[in-house]
Design a protein that fits this description.
Helix content is 11%, strand content 34%. The chain has 716 residues and is mainly beta. The chain folds into 4 domains: 33-146, Immunoglobulins (Immunoglobulin-like); 148-440, 4-Layer Sandwich (Purple Acid Phosphatase, chain A, domain 2), CATH 3.60.21.10; 447-582, no CATH class; 591-710, no CATH class.
Length: 716
């Protein structure tokens, strides 16, 4: 009996995904010139006259490179138009445009490419739509530079709220960005409007107009791009997004030796009961080959952006659906990553890499409540403040500086109040970081890197019921431990830990599984290439441990029937865990019982903070423990992870020892209970049926590494 998840639906139809990737080549380019202060850009008079109609949208610029750019607008049905353009210096000198290009095909949405541009140069342009629509006023952009410093802005979630429009919040962000003197382009993290609607998208372009009149925009798709007007299932196709930006849902572009990778997170295949697509492992994995290929190239730095965050307030772990990307990010040493979706500002530092959540451009705010769970990598956050992230990059100095800029604040998350405007805007957070870090071990989504990257761990599995086999996907939980899943990120199967106690001692390797499948875990010394492997037979719940320096193996084996561990080669391999325990200060509530097990009588009742509620709250799980090394005992502290599984720790939240899972296959079958421990402590796991009060208790003796699988004891 093992956890199996239903098959994933095919992701995304051809209308939303069936576009070839157009990858912009990277280059090192020259320091760009600021637009002359004498060229004042204001929303055109013609545009202000047309806003009520909401069917003609002022131009916006996309796909800028060193030598090209695309001018876009929404005009009359089956319309066309002309684009006049020139360098800013030419226009100021001659008071006229140098070149004119025409639209390539009739249509409501126009996308006109400009070519043969000079790198790093300010340009002005004017769009003359066909029909009765008057010409728009002069607007501007800059071609990408070949080298030198540059500045860009990141925003996300500019949509309106339930009780206010974008003109009541996003307006202040767009106007503040328009006043920035040196912004080259804007990265938008998705959720432009409340739902898929021409009217709401028209309001977005209207409110964003001061910003879009000066800088190019690079889009990212969000979940609101699929919402329909009634909020009913199934979701809409993201037509307005596709029509407005005319490009793939994941793509790359580059400048000055730095690359930008835009990824796609909302998966319509997740919409089984609503029109709100969230992340899926299937969608993330479908982009992994492309992402790996992008990360292989030589570059001075790499930034990534996607709508849903990997790390977020309200949970201690990363989004498991996006774990394949997280593994690649950490393995390749990206510069930073940006996201939105959660409506506030957050910054994390994950192994030294900045992770930004910048969902504060206008959507209904989410509070960062004290006491809520959050990742240990959290650095700073702010809510109810409208703003944007301004990033200055100096490739030659290998340096980037990000400033979170607040343009206004509100008192309520969702109200029609008038925001308090900061004039000038205020800087709420600043961080500098290198564009490029030292090379890390090879990128592999099937490998964990533990003990400071010194030990790699991989796992293969075989299903004795179906004959299927494969490599497990790795989920990193930090420097000490991680886990693997076979097919479903919400259903972890095998947990591993590597303890580096002393430089003169071998590593302590531990593994345990919440599965009865056969699996083989392989630990690799990254510097020497030496490996140690152990295979758990099918049908057992055993775990194991080894004290190994990875050329000189000291291993343990176990009896699948009893879970007892026995040392294979001479040496005190299991005793090293006592040294690990001495390095950890006992937490509050741990009581010393003396060196003898006789000092512990019974198991104390767990507190609420030490219980996990799994299977939609139907089963509570708690763990008590006793150390054979020090005689200490206590109640393990819970680390909630998801609806099906969670962790417990005795001393240190960064190094949990106990792992549990509860699967519910329906009322006709008993709950399926799993437990595993990465410790030789004695521990007792108590499962309690919240409805009936029935308890199922599993105790693992000290000195062994067994676990349990029970699919018969606890009925609904």
């Amino acid at each position: 009996m093992n956890a199996r998840s239903p098959g994933r639906s095919p992701i995304r139809s051809a209308i939303t995904r069936g576009r070839s990737l157009s990858l912009v080549p990277l280059a090192r380019v020259s320091l760009f010139i600021a637009i002359s202060s004498t060229l004042l850009l204001t929303p055109p008079a013609a545009w202000s006259q047309q806003t009520a109609a909401n069917d003609i949208w002022a131009p916006w610029v996309t796909k800028t490179t060193e030598h090209s750019a695309t001018i876009n607008w929404r005009g009359e049905t089956d319309g066309s138009g002309l684009v006049d353009f020139a360098t800013s210096s030419y226009y100021e000198k001659n008071k006229s445009f140098e070149k004119t290009v025409s639209s390539q095909a009739p249509g409501t949405y126009q996308h006109v490419p400009l070519t043969d541009l000079v790198p790093g140069t300010p340009y002005v342009y004017r769009v003359r739509p066909s029909g009765s629509t008057p010409a728009f006023a002069i607007r501007a952009f800059r071609s990408m530079p070949m080298n030198g410093p540059f500045t860009f802005v990141v925003i996300s979630d500019s949509q309106e709220g339930h009780t206010y429009t974008e003109a009541m919040r996003f307006k202040y962000v767009a106007e503040a960005i328009a006043k920035e003197p040196d912004v080259l382009f804007v990265l938008h993290g998705g959720d432009y409007a409340g739902h898929e609607s021409q009217s709401l998208w028209g309001k977005f372009f209207q409110v964003a107009d001061p910003m879009l009149a000066k800088v190019a925009i690079f889009p990212t798709i969000g979940n609101h791009e699929y919402h329909n007007s009634g909020g009913t299932f199934p979701p809409s196709t993201p037509d307005e997004f596709v029509w407005s930006f005319d490009g793939p849902l994941h793509y790359s572009f580059g400048l000055a030796g730095v690359q930008f990778l835009v990824l796609d997170t909302p998966d319509p295949a997740t919409c089984t009961t609503s029109d709100d697509p969230q992340t899926s492992l299937a969608l993330a994995q479908s982009q992994v080959p492309w992402l790996i290929d992008q990360l292989k190239g030589a570059r001075l730095g790499t930034f990534t952006i996607h709508h849903h965050p990997i790390w977020d307030w309200g949970r201690t772990d990363s989004n498991p659906d996006l774990q394949p990307w997280e593994t690649l990010y950490q393995g390749s040493g990206i510069s930073a990553t940006f996201s939105g979706h959660t409506h506030n500002y957050q910054r994390y530092s994950v192994e030294g890499t900045p992770y930004f959540v910048v969902g504060n451009a206008g959507g209904r705010f989410s509070d960062l409540a004290d006491g809520d769970p959050h990742p240990t990598s959290y650095v700073v956050g702010e809510t109810r403040k409208l703003g944007y992230l301004k990033v200055t990059v100096d490739p030659q100095a290998n340096l980037a500086t990000a400033q979170e800029v607040f343009a206004a604040s509100v008192l309520e998350n969702d109200s029609a109040e008038t925001p308090s405007v900061y004039d000038p805007p205020v800087i709420g957070d600043t961080v500098s970081f290198p564009l490029s870090r030292a090379p890390r071990p090879p990128v592999d989504p099937n490998q964990l890197l533990l003990a400071g990257g010194k030990v790699g761990v991989g796992l293969t599995w075989k299903d004795q019921y179906t004959g299927k086999a494969g490599k497990a996907t790795a989920v990193s939980k930090g420097n000490v431990y991680g886990y693997f899943f076979f097919s479903d990120a919400q259903n972890p199967e095998v947990f591993v830990k590597v303890l580096d106690i002393e430089s003169s001692q071998p590593y302590l390797l531990l593994w345990g599984g919440l599965t009865d499948f056969e699996y083989t875990v392989t630990f690799t010394n990254i510097s020497s290439g030496k490996t140690f492997s152990a295979t758990k037979p099918a049908g057992s719940a055993a775990g194991g441990a080894s004290s190994s320096d990875l050329p000189r193996i000291r291993a343990v084996s176990w009896d699948p029937g009893t879970g007892k561990a026995t040392e294979v080669t001479p040496g005190n391999s299991l005793g090293i865990e006592a040294k690990a325990e001495k390095l950890l200060a006992p937490r509050d509530g741990v009581r010393a019982a003396g060196p003898s097990r006789e000092g512990v009588t019974g198991s104390p009742e767990p507190a609420a903070a030490s219980e996990l509620l799994l299977a939609r709250g139907q089963v509570s799980v708690s763990v008590t423990w006793w150390s054979p090394h020090s005689g200490q005992s206590g109640i393990a502290t819970a680390l909630p992870q998801g609806d099906q599984f969670g962790f417990f720790y005795s001393f240190d939240a960064a190094s949990p020892e106990f792992f549990v899972k509860v699967l519910d296959w329906g009322k006709a079958q008993p709950f399926l209970l799993f437990a595993a421990g990465l410790t030789d402590f004695e521990y007792t796991v108590t499962y309690r049926n919240a409805r009936t009060g029935q308890k199922v208790v599993f105790t693992k003796p000290s000195g062994s590494y067994g676990g349990c699988v029970d699919g018969t004891s606890m009925v609904h």
